[in-house]
Amino acid sequence: MPPPRILNPRAVPVAGTDAHLPPVPTPALRPDALRRRFASCTGWQPELTGDGRAFVPGREAAAAAVLVPLVQRDDQGDGGMHVLLTRRTDHLRDHAGQISFPGGRTEPEDGTAAATALREAREEVGLAERHVDVIGELPPYTTITQFVVTPVVALVHPGFELALDDFEVAEAFEVPLAYLMNPAHHRRHVFSWDDGQRQFLSMPWHGRGADGAEREYFIWGATAAMLRNLYHFLSA
Fold first, then answer.
1. Residue 162 lies in a domain
2. 75 within domain boundaries
3. Domain for residue 16, yes or no?
4. Domain with 77 in it: what CATH number?
5. What percentage of the chain reaches a pLDDT higher than 90?
6. Is residue 194 left, alpha or beta, with left meaning phi > 0 and alpha meaning psi from -120 to 50?
7. Range(s) of the domain holding residue 228
8. 154-193, pLDDT tens digit by residue?
9. Which of 156, 111, 144, 110 is nearest to 223 (CA)?
10. Is 29 exposed, middle or buried (0-12, 13-18, 19+ CB in 10 A)?
């Protein structure tokens, strides 16, 4: 039997944080340092590779890719690099209302994970490829909905304008990379039911939305897991 769906992850108890682990140093988060790290891609193993079990009866695993867009914002006073994320609309079949990277299912004509990620970013948020410089990939992550997702990491040059697909994307926002690469902000949750337990990470971020209002963006699940793998990659 599949476990019950986690309908309200905010309500799942926090078992702890990883404040004992060091944050990625600020110099390692600069564009040149990120390029050098992805040029080597050695000396590490991902901590999280997926949910591990097929929980959706009748659905086969499908290839997908997401773009991990790192935007340089030197005027923000927080290390410069920001991660562009989206909040999905509430009516979608998979991961409705969740915080995610731009991305989706691989189409036959894509050819590569990078091509999928760039196409999906263009379709979902209107991010033009001329502003995007792909620097590498992280190992695939298998979601509970049985997508085998390749995170494609890219530097995004300022000056772009977004145009959201309002069917899929409720809003787009940015979070400082330094915040997400600090394990003190990585919370571990344990979801229990009669037949077992499931653990997941969250990285809540408080920021202003497009309407100027302050709100909590609850980054959790697959998105948080991929960010955690990025942390280990940059820390290795």
1. yes
2. yes
3. no
4. 3.90.79.10
5. 70
6. alpha
7. 24-235
8. 999 989 999 999 998 999 999 999 999 999 999 999 988 8
9. 144
10. buried
Residue 61 has φ and ψ, to the nearest 5°, of -65, 140
Side chain identity at residue 233, one-letter code: F
Q: Given pLDDT bands bounded at 50, 70 and 90, which one contains residue 151?
A: very high
Give the total number of structural domains in the chain: 1
* Paired sense of beta strands 62-72 and 147-156, if any: parallel
In the predicted model, what is the mean pLDDT of residues 94-101? 76
